[in-house]
Design goal:
208 residues; alpha/beta; Ribosomal Protein L4, Chain: A; 2 domains; 6-stranded mixed β-sheet; 6 strands
Length: 208
């Protein structure tokens, strides 16, 4: 498929970018997408939750009442989970929620997500640009020119560009990443994906 290349003023340059059918026009594998998004979200979890269990509670170890003759249930420790202030049964412990996925599945998931966006006409290509200095207004002007200033957008750079990145950092609805940081979750999370012209070759070589 072909997409018109725009300049930073939102006008067509007269050139078109050819998007590889192996990356942007495959039959989406929804299960692969699900697994890749699930892994991404699992990796965001800190897993530092902790509750004290019976053995970790400070308290007396004496038997709090005699075994028989009280007319109530037996009780041997004030640290028992049935008493207020006692330990929690099977409480949460620190753990790592991450799990492994093979590289081929992750590539398939990203190709599937990009194909979904291409089907929805949510992919744009803009020619390479740079700013003389970091300035949020410059990025806002570019977004207005291409008509996505009010939409959640993902801008994909070929190489890291400090001025462009810093110019977008204060914008809540826009995220700028390099092509190596592209993930299935970020693709699906954005309403529009804007590829800088120089990023396409690297993305297609990595995912095809």
């Amino acid at each position: 498929m072909e997409v018109a290349i725009l300049d930073i003023k939102g006008k067509e340059t007269g050139r078109k970018a050819k998007l590889s059918d192996k990356v942007f026009a495959i039959e989406p594998n929804e299960h692969a997408v699900y697994l890749d998004v699930k892994q991404y979200l699992a990796n965001q979890r800190q897993g530092t939750h902790k509750a004290k269990e019976r053995a970790e509670i400070k308290g007396s170890t004496r038997k709090i009442k005699k075994q028989k003759g009280t007319g109530t249930a037996r009780a041997g420790s004030i640290k028992s989970p049935i008493f207020k202030g006692g330990g929690r049964v099977f409480g949460p412990r620190p753990r790592n929620y991450g799990f492994k996925l093979n590289k081929n599945l992750k590539r398939l998931a990203r190709r599937s997500a990009l194909s979904m966006k291409a089907t929805d006409n949510a992919i744009m290509v803009i020619e390479d640009f740079n700013f003389d200095a970091p300035r949020t207004k410059n990025m806002i002007d570019v977004l207005k020119a291409i008509g996505i200033q009010d939409k959640k957008s993902l801008i994909v750079l070929g190489d890291s560009n400090k001025n462009v990145y810093l110019s977008s950092r204060n914008l809540k609805t826009t995220e700028v990443i390099s092509s190596s940081e592209l993930s299935t979750y970020k693709i699906l999370h954005a309403n529009n994906i804007v590829f800088i012209e120089g990023s396409l070759e690297g993305i297609e070589s990595n995912l095809s």
